[in-house]
Write a structure and sequence with these properties.
6 strands, six-stranded mixed β-sheet, 52% helix, Rossmann fold
Length: 263
């Protein structure tokens, strides 16, 4: 089994003991990766390449503490502030990722850094590896499972899994999805509509609808022909912006009816 680990998930797993140096923190994180996943690839978000669709999501996850100032540090500098405060500064987070990546590379762990949001790169990396090996994606972001179900194509003899755990308390993986088994259960047509349905009910770049959960939108995709027709517009590379906007309004209507019924 080859693991592809979401670097953002890994950073939030990181222990941050007082009195440690940044080098010791990075080494401890590397030791965890080697002990837990062995032969793996770690894919990090890029934080210094300008605005991305995940900026609002990062702000939502950030601590209420004021982010730390931007400062240069090395592996021998002693940590002087909380993890949340430090990681709240994009430049500092990127410098720490660079330090951690260099240590992981010394231990023969492959690291990849995206230019922005890493979700698509994580899935692409995993599916490329799946051409010659069983692979498991490790993270806590629903976007990864949606993208895997959308993009994965069954490869003879090789399995693809998504392993999820909460970054705040994960000691072991808590849920595992066999991507191809779930895809067979849902059906190819539904899997092709998942990104549209996921965006409509709320994701990194769109707000969720009041009183409308993920399961309700999925039921609409499964049971409503009209909903599927409009959602399919989002998946077509030929769709214009106006066509997507119109289809979005029409696809929202059955979901809003559910919300009004609850009210």
């Amino acid at each position: 089994m080859h693991y592809v680990v979401d670097g953002g998930f890994l950073l939030h797993l990181l222990n941050w003991p007082c009195g440690s140096t940044y080098g010791q923190l990075a080494q401890g994180c590397a030791d965890f990766v080697i002990r837990k996943f062995g032969h793996c690839t770690v894919v990090f978000d890029g934080y210094c390449s300008g605005p991305s669709t995940k900026d609002v999501s990062h702000l939502r996850r950030a601590s209420k503490e004021q982010p730390s100032r931007d400062f240069a540090f090395d592996s021998d500098m002693v940590v002087c502030e909380s993890k949340n405060k430090f990681l709240g500064n994009a430049q500092n987070k990127q410098r720490f990722i660079n330090l951690l990546s260099s240590i992981l590379s010394e231990h023969k762990v492959e690291t990849v850094c995206a230019k922005g949001d890493a979700d698509c790169l994580i899935v692409k990396t995993a599916l490329d590896i799946a051409k010659g090996n069983n692979v498991a994606v490790v993270g806590d972001d629903t976007d990864l499972l949606v993208l895997l179900l959308f993009h994965a194509v069954p490869v003879s003899g090789h399995s693809v899994f998504f392993t999820s755990a909460k970054a705040s308390s994960a000691k072991t993986m808590t849920k595992v999805w066999d991507v191809f088994a779930v895809k067979r259960s849902l059906g190819e047509n539904i899997c092709q509509l998942l990104p549209s349905a996921h965006a409509l009910e709320g994701c990194d770049s769109t707000s969720s609808l009041f009183a409308v959960g993920k399961s309700q939108v999925l039921k609409k995709a499964n049971n409503s022909t009209a909903f599927r027709e409009q959602a399919a517009v989002f998946s077509s590379i030929k769709s214009s912006k106006d066509a997507i906007a119109g289809a979005g309004e029409k696809a929202l209507l059955p979901c809003m009816v559910v919300s009004l019924q609850i009210l």
